[in-house]
Amino acid sequence: MNTQQWPGATNKHISIIMVSKLFTFTRRQLHTIVSRDIIKPSSPTPSHLKTYNLSLFDQLAVNAYMPVVAFYPSSSLFQSSHDKTLELKNSLSHTLNQYYPFAGRFAKSCPTYVNCHDDGVEFIEANNDNQLSDFLHHSDHEDLDQLFPDDLIWYKSNHNGHNDENESTSPLSVQVNHFSCGGVAVAVSLSHRIADGSSIFNFLNHWATVTRSRSPEHHDLSHMNPHFLSYKTRDVKLPKNMPDRSQGDYVTRSFVFPNTKINNLKAKITSMSMESGEPILNPTRAEALTWLIHKCAVAAASKTNSGILKPTGVGQIMSIRNNLAESLPETSVGNLYLLMEFPTRDESELTPHNIIRELRKRKMEFRGIKNMETALGIVAEVCSDHAAMLQTSKRVDDYYIYTLINRFPTYGIDFGWGKPIKVTVGGVVKNVIIMMNTPNGDGIDALVCLDRQDMNIIQNDPELLAFC
Question: Where is the signal peptide (predicted)?
Fold first, then answer.
């Protein structure tokens, strides 16, 4: 392929710094960083867009990076990995024209806006001496860390010794990893301060479509363009001591639930709820798995706590894009979600009819919010009382947070080499459960992060394994 057909792909947009750094990992993996580039938007950002104000939702988001990686088998479209990488750099440069705040800079500590002066996005290229199939089949979830740029994996980026409040940081970094067989893993780390899970997958699909289209000027991609909302600055005292889920000895494991077994679980839940006199009709896959995983996680935690059941809680992330009375475009960028939560203090509150009923009740409450301005007003009220904000997360010992990305276009991220054979999230944080579709859409892959002792128990829980 002739990569010069890309308009605007000049040296001024791509500055290259060659490095050679070796990392040795478990199972004798050799991972080598071969280059670091800075990719800038192919066209300068207009002067009236140089400042992008963050919403209260953004400012309250965790100070961490969301890591997403997509794996692709070897492709015969390119003669070398260099050609593939060059095309990705060129298409990223064009994609950043639309996602211009991602190429900006904001304060590391408590940012309220992004300086959109086209500073650029770091683009790292790396080689892994494994076959892609071997890496996917024989690696633990923690082995994914090496695929992401510079420790930008959830909270890890906050523990690298560079926390000067006067420093600025980039919202986005990219790392492209080449395997010995010709397979590739495209990994991105996006700051949660600027966007949520929906935003990162919209960005990846946009970037992939631009790459696949080869010459974006000749294709109408307006339907994919990001929708950046305009926010006024608000004088609100934000809480600073938010709970930190980065501490402790915890591990992440994947549990795959086939649709056939999820259907059995849903039938079990319906039967149990009918017997209780509080019938739950047509539970969704997410509702059913939330109950099952929560029940088993609490049981595991009780066993490691000398058999004593500690008060816990359920938290589930709900996008507000289509749940406000005045819905927002699907391509809206930002932290556009609310946290539905309720306590589970004893055995009676761990029943399926209680948990699913509470989830549905809170969904209906959120759907009564008129528009984004109303939602921001509610957040501002809560933030005005620091104690009230912290009380939500500390009224019980442990909340388990469930994030649903099974409706996101995860397996549509096609750069022109075909659809990915696997898409997953790196890291994950303690007591967080992320549910996503399996590659063929025939089930749910749940990434569960728990204390190591709890994980040792839940991995052998017969009730959970009966539906895997």
Answer: none
